[in-house]
Amino acid sequence: MNYPDYSYPSGLWASVARDILLLRRRDFHRDAKACIAKLDPPLNVLGKENIPGHGPCVVTVNHYHRAGFGAQWIALAIAALVPVHMHWVMTGEFMYQGKWYRPIGSLGSRILLERIARIYGFTTMPPMPPRPKDVELRAASVRAVLEYVTHEKEPVLGLAPEGHDPPSGVLARPASGLGRFGLLLSKAGLKFLPVGAYEAEGVFHLHFGESYELSLPHDLPADERDEQAVQIIMKNIAWRLPLHLRGEFVEET
After folding, report:
1. Which of 54, 76, 215, 219 is deepest in the core (most CB within 10 A)?
2. Which residue ranges form the domains of the chain, and what is each CATH number?
3. CA distances (Å), 3 to each of 118, 198, 200, 218, 246, in order?
4. What are the backbone dihedrals phi and psi of residue 170, each rounded to the nearest 5 degrees, phi first?
5. Over the stretch 100-124, which tens digit does the pLDDT of each residue have?
6. pTM confidence score
7. pLDDT tens-digit profile of 133-163?
8. What is the 3-state secondary structure (H, E, C) of 90-126?
9. Are the C-beta atoms of 156 and 85 separated by less than 8 Å?
10. How far apart are CA 20 and CA 48, in angstroms?
11. Mind listing the pLDDT tens digit for each residue in 40-67?
């Protein structure tokens, strides 16, 4: 299968590296537009009428993956199209599972990703799958996101619920607690806007769906509310993907 040519503008890495060292703020929308402008063939966008021009909303997207494709291109593509600042919830650590350099690599990635989050105004979240030692850090990250959406005027949040690279790019079930997190965002006044990201016929595609409100009966048991919220969030993403990428959420509309 042919794949698009993903390349970065000349000088971008040096500029970003300088600002990481100096902790100088950058405009992710501007950087994203510069990167996506070099995509060959160009990005194909479905559902352009659903691209949010303002918040409050949370853009939820699948964590599409294949060998040679970096998930940063998903965030770059979406941010290039959304005309306002997006606050992304990003991983705070690379796991390097099975690699001999895992301890030092993971430590280095934590430092680097934290600085990237600071220059772009994002929030980091401990990596998936969840580790017992990360419970307090994860709770702190959730509180930070909720504080941001509470105090920011018309926030636009970016979130990939799976939080990791799923095998073969097929949509995977997120970790426990995603539904509760989604309901907290809904309670804070955010609508949900699903996006499907995938490659087909040598082209990178984004499919924006219509926004919706995540609402469930309050008398449901906590675990059932979590599960139903997960189903709603993930099925809305799945419906914007080709059938072979929908995984257990393959049910059609």
Report:
1. 76
2. 12-243 (3.40.1130)
3. 32, 11, 8, 46, 20
4. -75, 135
5. 877 788 889 899 999 999 999 999 9
6. 0.94
7. 878 888 999 999 999 999 999 999 999 999 8
8. EECCCCCCCCCCHHHHHHHHHHHHHHHHHHHCCEEEC
9. yes
10. 33
11. 999 999 999 999 999 999 999 999 989 8
3-state SS, the chain, equals CCCCECCCCCCHHHHHHHHHHHCCCCCHHHHHHHHHCCCECCCEEECHHHCCCCCCEEEEECCCCECCECCHHHHHHHHHHCCCCCEEEEECCCCCCCCCCHHHHHHHHHHHHHHHHHHHCCEEECCCCCCHHHHHHHHHHHHHHHHHHHHCCCCEEEECCCCCCCHHHCCCCCCCCHHHHHHHHHHCCCEEEEEEEEEECCEEEEEECCCECCCCCCCCCHHHHHHHHHHHHHHHHHCCCCHHHCHHHCCCC
